[in-house]
């Protein structure tokens, strides 16, 4: 199975959404919040496209990589799921490392909040990523979708209506 950074992120947010996404059931295109995040990404640092490289490597797509300073920049709208964002960037660092690009660090940027958060990859993180990959493969290959979790962040999820709709049983 092909693991990408989105799956790592979703694994750390909601395993139900992970399963749905990986199995081709997607609603991101219907979400105003997802669109807002994309606009923030595009409009926050317009000069970056000229200065930094876009990198696609082994299932990841890093929009802003400063090759000179060896820094991956990841822009997010909100820090509500900051740990998931952090693991996404750690996965980027992991993939770079697996491809012989050493000494790379990450920077999570929240332009609306005017916050940044540095990200590094430790030996323990590498072990956790290996475990996550195995767990993701297990979750995605299961023929049953994981059960609904009820979290406050569900209200803003693009899968909300899907997960919370109830079918009438006859």
Automatic annotation (TrEMBL):
GO biological process, any: defense response to virus
Occurrences of domain DUF83 (ranges): 5-164
Protein family: Belongs to the CRISPR-associated exonuclease Cas4 family.
Ranges that cross the membrane: none
Domain of life of the native organism: Bacteria
Keyword Nuclease: yes
Organism lineage string: Bacteria, Pseudomonadati, Bacteroidota, Bacteroidia, Bacteroidales
Function: CRISPR (clustered regularly interspaced short palindromic repeat) is an adaptive immune system that provides protection against mobile genetic elements (viruses, transposable elements and conjugative plasmids). CRISPR clusters contain sequences complementary to antecedent mobile elements and target invading nucleic acids. CRISPR clusters are transcribed and processed into CRISPR RNA (crRNA).
Entries under Gene3D superfamilies matching the protein: 3.90.320.10
Record protein name field: CRISPR-associated exonuclease Cas4
Keyword Magnesium among UniProt keywords: no
PANTHER family in the record: CRISPR-ASSOCIATED EXONUCLEASE CAS4
Cofactor binding comment, as recorded: Mg(2+) or Mn(2+) required for ssDNA cleavage activity.
Enzyme nomenclature, EC number: 3.1.12.1
Cofactor: Mg(2+); Mn(2+); iron-sulfur cluster
Keyword vocabulary terms for this entry: Antiviral defense, Exonuclease, Hydrolase, Iron, Iron-sulfur, Manganese, Metal-binding, Nuclease
GO MF terms, alphabetically ordered: exonuclease activity; iron-sulfur cluster binding; metal ion binding
Provenance organism: Phocaeicola plebeius
């Amino acid at each position: 199975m092909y693991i990408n950074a989105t799956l790592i992120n979703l694994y750390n947010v909601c395993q139900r959404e992970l399963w749905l996404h990986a199995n081709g059931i997607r609603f991101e295109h219907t979400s105003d919040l997802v669109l807002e995040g994309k606009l923030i990404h595009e409009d926050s640092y317009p000069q970056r496209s000229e200065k930094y490289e876009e990198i696609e490597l082994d299932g990841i797509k890093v929009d802003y990589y400063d090759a000179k300073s060896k820094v991956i920049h990841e822009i997010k709208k909100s820090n509500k799921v900051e740990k998931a964002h952090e693991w996404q960037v750690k996965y980027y660092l992991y993939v770079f490392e697996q491809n012989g690009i050493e000494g790379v660090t990450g920077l999570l940027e929240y332009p609306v909040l005017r916050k940044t958060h540095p990200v590094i990859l430790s030996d323990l993180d590498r072990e956790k990523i290996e475990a996550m990959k195995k767990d993701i493969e297990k979750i995605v290959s299961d023929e049953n979708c994981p059960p609904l979790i009820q979290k406050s962040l569900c209200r803003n999820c693009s899968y909300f209506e899907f997960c919370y709709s109830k079918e009438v049983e006859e």
